Amino acid sequence: MNVFVTGGAGYIGSICTEELLNAGHQVTVYDDLTEGHRSAVDKRARFVLGKPEQDGDILNAVKSARPDAIMHFAANALVGESMTNPKKYFHNNAFNALKLADAAVECGVKKFVFSSTCATYGPPDKIPMTEDLPQRPINPYGESKLMFEKILLWYQQIYGLEFIAFRYFNAAGASEQFGEHHRIETHLIPRLLQVVLGQLPQAEIFGTDYPTPDGTCIRDYIHILDLAQAHMLGLQPGKTGFYNLGNGDGYSVREVIQMCEKVTGKKIPAVEKPRRPGDPPRLVAAADKAIRELGWKPKFPKLEDIVKTAWAWHKKNPTGYPD
After folding, report:
1. By three-state DSSP, how is residue 214 classified?
2. Which residue spans of the chain are classified as CATH 3.40.50.720?
3. Whether domain 188-219+249-287+297-316 has CATH 3.40.50.300
4. Buried b / exposed e across 265-283, counting CB within 10 Å, b at 16+?
5. CB-based contact 222:118 (threshold 8 Å)
6. CA of 204: how far to CAs of 127, 183, 214, 223, in Å?
7. Which of 46, 74, 129, 166 is 20 to 30 A off residue 38, Cα-Cα?
8. The domain at 2-172+221-245 falls in which architecture?
9. What's residue 264's pLDDT?
10. Catalytic residues, which ones?
11. Number of Cα atoms under 13 Å in the Cβ half of residue 73
12. Tens digit of each residue's pLDDT (9 = 90 or more) over 155-178
């Protein structure tokens, strides 16, 4: 299959691109490199330097690639920044995504796989979280992703654009070749490994008085290779709808710190800080729907396996990608 991947120079997009190529697909990566890294793009892929603000740039790139399917990863994804600069998030995550959906329709693309987020739910009514929960995002990031989910629903109904939207929980880990390197790193596991590498002085624990066993937030972590596997299963014809992607197990901040200490063999000093506004105590996915309907089966469900692959990549690439 010929697949057009937006955001293929980013963390998730780069590894999904690698796995698509390993499975024998052709891939065109479209990325403006504001968040991604050119050296994170698999050399087997065709690369297009995206200029989404230019009229017709997205459309022309899709026309040139003539893809059978689109995987859309490109997005701004910092929750805190979305609260201070909502325009950036609505413009890129909804308006530019709309350009891509229009290009898909005009070029006759049959399948659209969208990288959504559990942030579309907001604080959940129940745990584990199922796809039928009310969607009440509490930040512009989650709202912008929800807006595009609704666009895809209408585009399927009106234009026949078959889509799948995956609502991620916490992607983590690495392949042997590609890993996690954000210009502004907010994710817990890479920040802990940066402490081990001497790049940060200490870990930060935001809130120790949550109603959880050790008082810290609990999150669901999913290995990036399991995430990539789900996306390839999403290319199956006739499969459509919304799917959570997580392991169904939650780990507290303290448990993640302890696991990173175990894997690296290093003590990680931590400082306790007040809660961050809007942080729910517990977010854990119910991914039964993806397992049942797509045939998805995570290969790396254990936190230790996730951390081991992340640590192997960070040791090999202590400063991340060279560009």
Report:
1. coil
2. 2-172+221-245
3. no
4. eeebebeeeeeeeeebbbb
5. no
6. 25, 18, 15, 23
7. 166
8. 3-Layer(aba) Sandwich (3.40)
9. 98
10. 141
11. 28
12. 999 999 999 999 999 999 999 999
